[in-house]
Design a protein that fits this description.
There is one protein chain. The chain is of the alpha+beta class. The chain folds into two domains: 15-202, no CATH class; 203-234. Helices cover 19% and strands 44% of the residues. β3 and β4 form a beta hairpin. The chain crosses the membrane at residues 34-56, 211-231. Keywords: Membrane, Transmembrane, Transmembrane helix.
Length: 234
């Protein structure tokens, strides 16, 4: 089932949403579905931030890439006139990479349903939702593996720093749902500013905390125990 809440003062003014669960040449023994949403999210005190929520299900395994999980999005390009979007998203540890691209077979006049959405405290019909077989999503999920050697001559930054991809899933989704609403060029620029310098070879406090959380927790626990012992011995 599917329930949507396109109303309220806190509804985003800019967003991209896509969903698909039908795939070309997917074996009967396999399953896959994808959902992605990128938006300018309203927050407290009239503040807004660019955030995203992306989930790929493959053979009952869920791969989540979300703002609140400190995931990173790169190379976001959007052509709303052609209903095309492309991006790469990574988990906080850069262990997995998900690539998504949409293509409309050169069609820019694809019919869609016009849905109600909030504008100026009223609900008006302005949200164009496409449910069509004329658009497809190319999806590739990879595991990033760091090699001991690097290739400084390659234009790909990850290959240049000694990374290669081990493909977990690759497929083309058909009969997809897609919405591209608002000034998405501005949204794309917000994402670029937020994530353009975040790579595994650059220092990240959050990423290092996640990587070494067991050591950090063990050290804190040891300090508490030692402090307790000293306090008892006094």
């Amino acid at each position: 089932g599917y329930i949507e809440k396109d109303w309220g003062n806190a509804f985003p003014s800019i967003w991209i949403w896509g969903q698909a669960n039908q795939w070309e040449l997917l074996p009967a023994t396999s399953s896959a579905s994808i959902f992605f949403s990128l938006a300018l999210i309203p927050w407290y005190f009239n503040l807004e931030f660019a955030g995203f929520l992306i989930v790929l299900e493959h053979n009952n395994e869920f791969y989540r890439f979300n703002t609140y999980l400190q995931s990173i999005i790169h190379d976001l390009t959007i052509n709303p006139d052609m209903h095309e979007i492309s991006f790469d998203v990574y988990d906080v540890l850069f262990q997995y990479k998900l690539h998504v691209s949409s293509y409309s077979n050169g069609l820019n006049n694809i019919d869609g349903a016009l849905l109600y959405g909030p504008r100026s405290d009223r609900m008006i019909k302005y949200v164009k939702e496409l449910l069509t077989k004329n658009i497809h999503f190319d999806v590739r999920l990879s595991k990033l593996i760091q090699n001991v050697t690097s290739n400084n001559d390659d234009n790909n930054l990850f290959i240049k720093h000694g990374y290669y991809e081990e493909i977990i899933f690759q497929g083309r989704a058909q009969s997809v749902a897609l919405e591209i609403t608002g000034n998405v060029k501005w949204l794309s620029e917000k994402f670029r500013q937020a994530y353009e310098n975040i790579y595994p070879w650059n220092f990240s406090l959050i990423r290092n905390i996640v990587i070494h959380y067991k050591l950090i927790l063990t050290s804190i626990l040891a300090m508490i125990i030692v402090s307790f012992i000293f306090a008892k011995c006094r």
